[in-house]
Amino acid sequence: MLPESGIVLAPLAGGPSTPELAAAVSNAGGLGFLGGAYLAPEQLREQLAVARRLTSGPLGVNLFVLRDRPVDQAAITAYAKELEPEARRLGVQLGEPHFDDDAFDAKLEIALDAGVEVVSFTFGCPAASVIARVRRSGVAVWLTVTSSEEARAASTGGSDALVVQGPEAGGHRGTWEDRDDGDVPLLELVEAIAAQESVPLIAAGGIADRRGVLAALAVGATAVQVGTAFLLCPEAGTGDAHRRAVAAGRETGVTRAFTGRRGRGLVNAFMRAHDGAPSAYPHVHHLTSPLRAAARSAGDANGFNLWAGTNVALVGAEPAAHVVARLRA
């Protein structure tokens, strides 16, 4: 299920994703996605119902693939101690670091019951039984990959298309392992994967204008997935402080400070102060969640993650339909 326009909305989990945004992109000839991550299952069900009322076009849902792996408990404890002054300043308690799978099974059931056209997965490859079940339901499976090795495994595992994410992308890196090496620029990565795999490729990462779209298509992509360019749309759920920061178009950087997994966002004071955060997702995500919520509530853009891609300076405030029209090849 690839849109004629070639434009796919990135899932934008954690706030910017809304049914209104997904529906607006689909109505404009793109493929609208809802970010299933961080929502309670019933919230996802409700959002899908709203999106379906707003569009007859195709919809997708993105889910995180999380596995309980060993983490450095001592490093997490040390990081919690480092964050205590932030908690006192904001008048909140740190969260309890722990593992959970973000209600994966329940959300998958809801997505399939809603009759979405695509379910995409990031942070890993789900079990073969999961992929088979999704495909038996008549729903396309897309896997996010960040290397040629991941692409080969995903293609062999039965993915109908690959979302090829470059390091230029805003938000979390979709790597199957949270590593500090191996980042390959998007266009180089798409070209390499296109030479070895026959499934459709959706290029993602730093694409915010038509020039970026055409460049991705020229090296082998079938479509592009775009997130940052939609952050300032009126249909997006992007908070006011985040909107102001995106409009200012500052420098971006990669950090684990907010969640314990590498992600790209606008550089702020929190990111600079906590550059040694451990690799431990979702443990650190739960640890910092009260801090980030308090900072958002206070409109403090220096206290929470301002996810954005490298070409944030190209982003303007315009309706989602205008973004699709501006980007489409």
Structural class: alpha/beta
Query: In what range is the share of β-strand residues?
Result: 5-15%
The whole-number mean of residue pLDDT values reads: 97
What's the CATH architecture name of the largest domain? Alpha-Beta Barrel
CATH superfamily of the largest domain: Aldolase class I
As a whole number of angstroms, the C-alpha radius of gyration is 18 Å
**Poorly predicted tracts of residues:** none
Q: What string, H for helix and E for strand, traces the elements in order?
A: EHEHEHHEHEHEEHEHEHEEHHH
> How would a textbook summarize the main sheet?
8 strands, parallel
Descriptive notes:
The chain folds into two domains: about 1-65 and about 100-245 and about 310-329, TIM Barrel; about 70-100 and about 250-305, no CATH class. It has twelve helices and eleven strands. Strand 5 (about 140-145), helix 6 and strand 6 form a beta-alpha-beta unit. The protein has helices at about 20-25, 40-55, 75-90, 105-115, 130-135, 150-155, 185-195, 210-220, 240-250, 270-275, 285-300, 320-325; strands at about 5-10, 30-35, 60-65, 120, 140-145, 160-165, 170, 200-205, 225, 250-255, 265. It is of the alpha/beta class. Helix 1 (about 20-25) runs parallel beside helix 2 (about 40-55) and helix 2 runs parallel beside helix 4 (about 105-115).
